[in-house]
Design brief:
- This protein has 386 residues and is of the alpha/beta class.
- It has 2 domains: 130 residues, Aspartate Aminotransferase, domain 1; 224 residues, 3-Layer(aba) Sandwich (Aspartate Aminotransferase, domain 2), CATH 3.40.640.10.
- The protein is built from 12 helices and 15 strands.
- The strands form 4 sheets. The protein has a 7-stranded mixed β-sheet with strand order 2-10-9-8-7-3-4, sandwiched between helices.
- α3 packs across α9.
- The longest helix is centred in the last third of the chain and has 25 residues.
- The structure holds pyridoxal-5'-phosphate.
- The site of pyridoxal-5'-phosphate has 13 residues, from α4.
């Protein structure tokens, strides 16, 4: 039996399912917005959590050597990267980690570059820390996005201090090649820019693609920081835990001091158990999930091709997020999504990821095949009605 089967998440305190509930005409609505999965985590993780709950004590935590060895081994096995134990710092969430890095390592009012369209919460993560968002827009050709390094260099010349990279890139589904990343690292090194790589989607890799971690460049430039988490891969976002990898001593010292001052240490007791299990026993589950997501992507692709070839689907290399250009309908993303919701189905509005993305919507494919097909039937009805 496929492990990626339909799971009813309504009325389970799910942000994804609760946030649109009031806009939906019927109780059996479907949501493909927020980036978490609508099927169970790996059975090994569920069993480990059950056993930990059975233990019954949930007091203060302290990480043991095992934890670090397991994270190091995952980096080695999955990304062919040797990271040192003392480079690893834990954080409650990737967003917390990014916020700490921004506030702890850049000067007040610094300009920080992001490559739009990009994960919407990068904007407030920078702005809420009093820093300035600088957009280095990705270039798009035939549904394939690349970085505009000439424009990026202009921002570096103008004094930007940090580049916040999304790799793999949410929402455009890119996995950057070694050559593309090498160019970015060379530019950051030339201008002394801190390079932060949000690699939360690193394990979600489609067939014929290979994720390249920015950590591959640590020997050339150590002002690089990686942030990763098991939360997307294993559907553990609600447990809240992430890892920061910081090879530069000075950066690490500053981040640790920043976190100590705010009592940000001692991870969630269940998260520790989940990470250890995910990173030791679940490689096969991750590979099977990638195949499942790719099959869902093919179902979506064939539906869109048949329904209206003018709707453009971006090629998916990594993540479980499909980026769809609906601009042939000449409607703004929010209006189109509101229209879809009248037919009991919600996607994520493209404008959230960059002001120039109005007309796009993002669709989360981490659900069962049956749920996706139900959702596409509702989408068809909504599009028929336009
Ligand atoms: C690129 C990226 N970074 C960070 C996050 C949020 O991670 P966390 O829940 O660990 O803060 C997401 C969630 O969608 C994401 O796509």
């Amino acid at each position: 039996m496929t492990p990626f089967k339909t799971l009813n998440r309504r009325n389970s305190n799910s942000a994804k399912w609760e946030s649109v509930k009031d806009k939906m005409p019927a109780n059996d609505y479907l949501v493909f917005s927020v980036a978490d999965s609508d099927y169970e985590t790996a059975p090994e993780i569920k069993a480990a959590l059950k056993a930990r709950v059975e233990h019954g004590a949930f007091g203060y935590t302290m990480l043991d050597d095992d934890y670090y060895q397991i994270v190091q081994s995952w980096y080695q096995r999955r990304y062919q990267l040797n990271i040192k134990k003392n480079w690893i710092i834990t954080a409650p969430k990737v967003l917390t980690a990014l916020s700490i890095i921004i506030d702890g390592l850049s000067s007040k009012k610094a300009a920080i570059v992001i490559q739009t369209p990009v994960y919407n919460v990068f904007f407030p993560a920078i702005k809420q820390n009093g820093r300035k968002v600088v957009e280095n827009k990705l270039t798009q050709k035939n549904g394939h996005y690349t970085m505009d390094t000439e424009d990026l260099e202009k921002h570096f010349k103008a004094g930007a201090e940090m580049l916040l990279l999304c790799s793999p890139h949410n929402p455009v589904g890119r996995i950057y090649t070694t050559d593309e990343l090498a160019r970015i690292v060379a530019l950051c090194k030339q201008y002394g820019v801190t390079l932060v790589s949000d690699e939360i989607h690193a394990d979600l890799v489609m067939p014929n693609h290979q994720f390249v971690s920015l950590g591959k460049f640590f020997n050339d430039y150590d002002n690089i920081i990686l942030v990763s988490a098991p939360s997307k891969t294993f559907n553990l976002a609600g447990l809240q835990s992430a890892n920061i990898v910081v090879p530069n001593n000075e950066n690490r010292k500053k981040l640790k001091a920043y976190m100590r001052k705010r009592f940000l240490y001692a991870p969630n007791v269940l998260a520790i158990e989940a990470i250890k299990t995910a990173y030791t026993l679940c490689d096969d589950w991750v590979d099977a999930q990638n195949m499942h997501i790719y099959q869902n992507y093919q179902i979506l692709q064939s539906f869109l091709n048949q329904y209206n070839p003018a709707i453009t689907l971006t090629s998916l290399e990594g993540t479980y997020l499909a980026w769809i250009d609906f601009s042939c309908y000449q409607m703004k993303s929010d209006a189109l999504n509101d229209h879809f919701m009248k037919f009991n189905v919600a996607l994520a509005s493209g404008i959230n990821y960059g002001l120039h993305c109005d007309g796009y919507l993002r669709m989360n494919l981490a659900c069962s095949k049956a749920q996706l097909e139900d959702g596409l039937r509702s989408l068809k009805k909504a599009l028929d009605a336009l």
